[in-house]
Amino acid sequence: MTTPLLSLTWTDHVTGRQGFLVVDRLVRGVASGGLRMRPGCTLDEVAGLARGMTMKEALHYDPAARYVPLGGAKGGIDCDPRAPEAYPLLVRYLRAVRPYVESFWTTGEDLGLSQDLVDRAAAEAGLVSSIQAVYPLLDDEAAARRRLADAFAVEVDGIGLDELAGGCGVAESVLAALDAASVPYAGTRVAVQGLGTMGGATARFLTRAGLTVVAVADIKGTVYHPAGLDVEALLAARDAHGTVDRSALRPADRELPGDAWLSLDVEVLVPAAVSYAIDTGNQERIRARWIVEAANMPVLPAAEALLAARGVTVLPDVVVNSGTNAWWWWTLFGDIGADADEAFTHIRRSMRGLVEQLLARAEADGTSPRAAAHALVADRLPVIAERFGRYR
Ligand SMILES: NC(=O)c1ccc[n+]([C@@H]2O[C@H](COP(=O)([O-])OP(=O)(O)OC[C@H]3O[C@@H](n4cnc5c(N)ncnc54)[C@H](O)[C@@H]3O)[C@@H](O)[C@H]2O)c1
């Protein structure tokens, strides 16, 4: 792993809690990457996530598109997002890193934080926007900002388009993998860890594609029905942190322990919550054929090697969950308009193309899909550097 351009640790003067910012690299003077809040968040974790953002930006490079890549970055705050001190801490963190957000770090929601909350805290911290650093790169800033604001106002069946874009890409990755293996959608069972932004949207798109979501886990535990859950009812019963109100469960839905989602009899597992969820200790309980990483870094490398040895394919985060970031930029730079159908079509086409490329490369090189993703990035980064210079 290359050394990041910038890596900082901030200590809050009120609570003593820490926050982190890692800028892996700048491209055109800007780096993109969300901000997460979770108890136990570390600088190492944020550095890994920042590197992943560089890769996501590179993977979506299309020389013919209006959006061309930025660098990768990530922020993290070590705090429970449901704690009373969480919001004031978020505001103080954003005040502390304000010069970076103003000049080169574009950020947004990630684990533990919603975009609404990031926007509110950013305004309170004196920022114009959490993505203002990219504005100088836009041809028509006013039109671009209007387009993105309009896109954020689009809702599809009660969920904002911004909260659906990423899950649309995750679901399309699942479908592309099933198609490559000639496995029909109907009868394919799925368990999802996390029913927040990513997990919730993924569960919706997979259900609508004809798969059966038999289990979802949130912070309170796993909800399970072998014949399939009523995903829309669960989505409607979430609080702002993605916790499902258990009174919405049907009588036949069962409540299982938090880690039960992992070992159920399903074809597809979608970890869509925390990093490091699958380790060498629990990987042996997995019965699925595919693990599709909606979350960032949910499978530890040593666990992935053991899973690969017994024929379980892990589709890597840098590809699978890259739809959200790309959707922001496609919309802002004007590759797509503020329209759900246009967004979903573009996301599906791009994600399917990427997953097909990834699987073909893995097959040709005899490697894992993750190694193939890294190989694709290694091919692309010099092309991007050639066009834009390393730090211009
Ligand atoms: N939101 C985005 O735009 C985005 C984009 C790409 C990747 N990601 C990644 O996806 C993952 C989820 O992000 P999100 O924004 O959907 O988060 P979120 O805060 O919206 O939702 C998190 C969900 O995970 C559940 N959860 C938290 N801890 C858990 C635990 N220990 N066990 C079981 N469930 C748990 C919560 O109850 C909630 O349902 C993160 O790894 C994040 O980095 C998010």
UniProtKB/TrEMBL annotation:
GO molecular function, a single term: glutamate dehydrogenase (NAD+) activity
Location of the Glutamate/phenylalanine/leucine/valine/L-tryptophan dehydrogenase C-terminal domain: 158-389
Positions annotated as active site in the UniProt record: K74 (proton donor)
PROSITE patterns: GLFV_DEHYDROGENASE
Gene Ontology process terms (BP): L-glutamate catabolic process
Keyword Oxidoreductase: yes
Top-level lineage group: Bacteria
Keyword set, alphabetical order: Oxidoreductase
Record-linked SUPFAM superfamilies: Aminoacid dehydrogenase-like, N-terminal domain, NAD(P)-binding Rossmann-fold domains
The family this protein is said to belong to: Belongs to the Glu/Leu/Phe/Val dehydrogenases family.
Name the UniProt record assigns to this protein: Glutamate dehydrogenase
Species this protein is from: Streptomyces pseudovenezuelae
